[in-house]
Specification:
Number of helices: 14
Helix content: 25-40%
Radius of gyration: 20 Å
Distance between the termini: 42 Å
Largest sheet: 8 strands, parallel, barrel
Number of strands: 13
Shape: globular
Strand content: 5-15%
Strand order of the largest sheet: 3-4-6-9-10-11-12-13
């Protein structure tokens, strides 16, 4: 099953059903937010791994709005050469490569955005003050953002990528517009499900016009926010139908937000754990409503589980995230019959329960950084060491690099 090819509605063919889903690499240059050379090494490594589809981590549409200090930002063609090198690396072994296009909205840390923007002036709950209360976007600003998404997509396709994925999940800006908890507007962008989906659908239309009919337009969408009164499965089906009508080529199903991390398995039931995939039940329900190709990411660990999910017809593409941070050759070995399940996926703990989930994310991020330096993952590295590396190489240097960049000869010390 997983070894079969899949032709998307736009005509682009995936050589197999395995996809590297988006992981936030945080390998943009500090200050200029250009693609760093480490992304070329990382995606060359993943290209060798055999996935039929590679989806990059967040590429932001506005350098004033960052989710992390080292996000790549594409507002225009100033970094076209670096983007082209990244695209060539990702496609070097035959994979289809998409750029995930995103805006954090209110999910931008206070250290990066003291006054972020969002559909409504409603802050995140339970974040300990790490995120500031956002300012409500004006209609003119919303329309500017629609154009920014489309321009980012255009530049990325010009650089050689096969298309883009619009990030409409995990509580980022598009997801915020979809959520009745985060979006309490009373104009054409708020209220009904159709109005809350307007921002996403306008972006999809503008993006399709910008990239052309023969490039891949994908969307990542929450099955639900898993919050009382939030974006629901019923609403997700309504939006999915609208996206199919809008000509989307591939819909990736996920779930949760910063407030409720379903995408990390936080809400996973025992029945779902036994079936591997976190969102497979919803995908089966959605398949009865839409015919566009569906991708499910989260929880897949064995070939048997992947083949079974595709055989049911509910899923067309299997998304793999963290497994490819520790076992980049897993797809190739799986397709060759030399591996039946991923290894190195044991829970990572630092012994502080409230911090373990974040420590695990950080540990996987540092594995991406190793591959970006041309090294293999170090799965025996303790979680606490990973957290320390992340703090030293991401948070502190973000400040130091910004200062050093203003002094000739010093910036290169902190790459």
């Amino acid at each position: 099953m997983i070894e079969t090819s899949l032709t998307l509605p736009c005509g682009v063919t995936l050589p197999n059903r395995l996809a590297k889903s988006a992981l936030s690499e945080q390998l943009g240059t500090i200050g200029s937010h250009a693609p760093d050379g480490r992304l070329v090494k990382l995606y060359s490594r993943w290209a060798q791994g055999g996935s039929g589809l590679l989806v990059t981590g967040n590429v932001m549409v506005d350098r004033r709005a960052l989710g992390e200090p080292a996000n790549v930002v594409v507002e225009d063609d100033r970094d076209l050469e670096a983007l082209s090198a990244w695209a060539a690396a990702a496609k070097s072994d035959g994979a289809v490569a998409l750029v995930q296009v995103n805006h954090p909205g209110r999910q931008s840390p206070r250290s990066l955005s003291p006054r972020p923007v969002a559909p409504s002036a409603i802050g995140l709950k339970g974040m300990g003050g790490a995120f500031a209360v956002p300012r409500e976007l004006t209609v003119a600003e919303i329309q500017d953002l629609v154009a920014r998404y489309a321009e980012t997509a255009r530049v990325c396709v010009e650089a050689g990528f096969d298309g883009v994925q619009l990030h409409g999940a995990h509580g980022y800006l598009i997801s915020q517009f979809l959520s009745p908890l985060a979006n309490q507007r009373t104009d054409q962008y708020g209220g009904s499900t159709e109005n809350r989906a307007r921002f996403l659908l306008e972006i999809a239309a503008a993006t399709r016009a910008a990239i052309g009919a023969d490039k891949v337009l994908s969307v990542k969408l929450n099955s639900a926010d898993f919050q009382r009164g939030g974006f629901s499965e019923d609403e997700s089906i309504v939006v999915a139908k609208a996206l199919e009508a809008a000509g989307v080529d591939l819909l990736e199903i996920s779930g949760g937000t910063y407030e409720v991390g379903a995408m990390m398995g936080v809400t996973k039931r025992e029945s779902t754990r036994q079936r591997e995939a976190y969102f497979l039940d919803f995908a089966e329900r959605l398949r009865g409503e839409v015919s566009l190709p569906l991708m499910v990411t989260g929880g897949f660990r064995t070939k048997e589980g992947m083949d079974e999910a595709i055989a049911t017809g509910a899923v067309d593409v299997i998304g793999l995230g963290r497994p490819l941070a520790v076992d980049p050759d897993f797809p190739r070995l799986l397709l060759a019959g030399k591996r039946s399940e991923v290894a190195g996926m044991e829970p990572r703990s630092i012994g502080i329960r409230k911090l373990d989930a974040m420590a695990e994310v950080v540990w996987y991020t540092t594995q991406l950084w190793r591959m970006g330096r041309g090294k293999e993952p170090a799965i025996t590295k303790p979680s606490a060491v990973g957290v320390g590396e992340y703090v030293v190489k991401s948070q502190l240097p973000a400040v130091v690099r910004g200062v050093a960049g203003q002094v000739p000869g010093l910036g290169g010390l902190f790459r």
